[in-house]
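Page 37, continued from 36.
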C-alpha cells in the first residue's frame, strides 16, 4: 500500500518541483512558445487572407477574361459580317459589270447583224437588178432580132409617149 499512498515529503518535493518548473516555464519558455504560436497564427491568417484576396483577383481576372473573350467573339462576328457584306457587294458589282458587258456585246452583235443584213439585202438587190437587166437584154435581143419587131416596138413606144 505504500505505493498507492504517497509520503508527505514526496508530495512536498513534487509540488515544489512543479511550482519551480512552472515558474521557469512561464518566465523563460512560455512567452517564446506563445509568441511563436501567435506568430504562426498570424502567418496562417495572413496566408488565408492572401488566399482569399488571390481568389477574388482570380475571379475578377476570370470575369475580365470572359468579357474579353465575349468582346473578341463579337468583334470576330462583326468582322465576318463586314467581310461577307463586302464580298456580297463585290459579287453584285461584278455581276452588274458582267451584265453591262453582256448587254454591250449583245447590242454590238445586233448592230453588226443589222449592218450585215442591210449589206446582204443591198447585194441581193444589186444581183436581182443585174439578173433582171440580163434577162431584159436577152428578151430585147430576141424581140428585136428582126426589123419588123423593131418597128412594132418603136411604134408602141411612140403611142405611149403621145398618151402621156
Amino acid at each position: 500500500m505504500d505505493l498507492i499512498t504517497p509520503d508527505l515529503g514526496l508530495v512536498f518535493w513534487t509540488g515544489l518541483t512543479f511550482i519551480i518548473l512552472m515558474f521557469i516555464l512561464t518566465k523563460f519558455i512560455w512567452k517564446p512558445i506563445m509568441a511563436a504560436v501567435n506568430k504562426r497564427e498570424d502567418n496562417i491568417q495572413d496566408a488565408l487572407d492572401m488566399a482569399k484576396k488571390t481568389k477574388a483577383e482570380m475571379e475578377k481576372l476570370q470575369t475580365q477574361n470572359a468579357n474579353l473573350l465575349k468582346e473578341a467573339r463579337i468583334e470576330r462576328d462583326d468582322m465576318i459580317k463586314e467581310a461577307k457584306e463586302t464580298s456580297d457587294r463585290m459579287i453584285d458589282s461584278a455581276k452588274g459589270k458582267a451584265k453591262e458587258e453582256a448587254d454591250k456585246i449583245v447590242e454590238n452583235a445586233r448592230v453588226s447583224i443589222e449592218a450585215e443584213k442591210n449589206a446582204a439585202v443591198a447585194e441581193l438587190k444589186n444581183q436581182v437588178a443585174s439578173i433582171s437587166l440580163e434577162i431584159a437584154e436577152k428578151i430585147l435581143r430576141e424581140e428585136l432580132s428582126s426589123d419588123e419587131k423593131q418597128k412594132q416596138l418603136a411604134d408602141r413606144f411612140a403611142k405611149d409617149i403621145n398618151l402621156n
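The first helix runs from residue 8 to 143. Flag for discussion at group meeting. DSSP finds two helices and no strands in the chain.
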